[in-house]
Amino acid sequence: MKIYLVTGGAGFIGSNFIQYILKKYSDITIINLDKLTYAGNLENLKCIENNENYNFVQGDICDRNLVSSLFEKYDIDYVVNFAAESHVDRSILDPETFVKTNVLGTVNLLDISKKAWELKDEIKSDKKYVQVSTDEVYGSLGETGYFTETSHIDSHSPYSSSKASADLMVKAYFDTYKMPVNITRCSNNYGPYQFPEKLIPLIINNCLNKKPLPVYGDGMNIRDWLYVEDHCKAIDMVINSGRLGEVYNIGGHNERSNLQIIKTIIGYLSENVDASINESLITYVEDRKGHDKRYGIDPTKIKNELGWYPETKYEDGIKLTIKWYLENKKWMENITSGDYQGYYNRMYKGY
Length: 351
Ligand code: NAD
Ligand code: DAU
Hints:
Layout: E1 2-7, H1 12-24, E2 28-34, E3 54-58, H2 64-73, E4 78-81, H3 88-93, H4 95-117, E5 118-119, E6 122-123, E7 128-134, H5 158-177, E8 181-186, E9 188-190, H6 199-208, E10 213-216, E11 222-227, H7 228-241, E12 247-250, E13 255-257, H8 258-272, E14 282-285, H9 300-306, H10 314-327, H11 329-336, H12 340-348
Parallel strand pairs: 1-2, 1-4, 2-3, 4-7, 7-8, 8-12, 9-11, 10-14
Antiparallel strand pairs: 5-6, 11-13
Helix pairs in contact: 1-7, 2-4, 4-5, 6-8
This protein binds nicotinamide-adenine-dinucleotide and 2'deoxy-thymidine-5'-diphospho-alpha-D-glucose.
The site of nicotinamide-adenine-dinucleotide has 30 residues, from α1, α4, β7 and β9.
């Protein structure tokens, strides 16, 4: 009976991951530690909230006493750290919050896990700490080439720099203390339960409400999109089989410009929901400061070592995703009725 401490499990990827592993394993216990920031939403976990293997604790990964008390109460086997401030635009407005959660929170989790797992001079080898990181730590690519695990760390935004700093602390715990760790670096995820400040759910929501679709710069920046369930599958494989101390890149070679993504969403909604949703909604706005041009992941290592491959083709995944938001309008309404509107106006309308 393995016990997982999943942090940030009420967010987009964390909630998909908890659903994924509870479906896959019946003999595990999950403790979901989440602060429930604006991005954390317990509605994302409604379908498993009564599962007897699932426990929710509201709290901050920076809270030493709280995290220590969880290790005292449970013999935790795996820490999977999803908890983070995750939105680049917010990091440009407020870098410090990103340093607190993403860097100091990670160090707090590492330190308490290490103490709990220490056995005389060694650390128990059947335990593992997995840091869920991002391809953004590698910076930006030109027109060709891919990020590999040995690409230089060259982060640009306060968000990606806080994630890169956290990665280096995870590496330090491996190099210095032989702490059993892995780092995963995935490309852009899409799918159910993503907060509508991120490109895909924002565009779907704005189309349905006939609001302008804000395109930063010329819309030609490129992201490498992966269906969220394929990311969850990769993390599960890394937990079980990743070689200690290793970094694994995760991505499915699905590069699209932002305009391509937006036009696909418009096309689907116009055909299936309302013919008056069209490209006239596209509105070019000021570019993101320090906007990375292109991301592209080389996933050879995780494919060769762990046998991972993406199961959902982009053409299917994007349809599944749009359908999910259409079938879960209440979920979107609940989110966009709160602070969201003020945030949205500040970001895109300048007031
Ligand atoms: P998200 O913003 O949707 O969710 C983050 C979750 O963390 C929320 O539930 C929030 O309440 C919680 N949280 C924030 N601060 C906390 C704190 N101090 N203590 C405890 N909980 C806290 O983020 P996401 O998109 O699901 O990303 C999850 C992780 O995956 C992040 O670490 C992110 O860097 C990484 N990642 C994201 C993507 C992507 O495309 N979204 C891609 C690669 C990696
Ligand atoms: O690459 C992985 C990263 O992907 C994760 O680490 C981050 O947590 C996640 O937020 C995501 O970062 P991006 O900045 O790539 O995602 P975002 O959805 O914010 O933006 C995607 C692209 O779309 C980017 O080039 C900016 C552009 N964009 C975004 C928004 C919200 C627009 O043109 N208009 C918009 O309104």
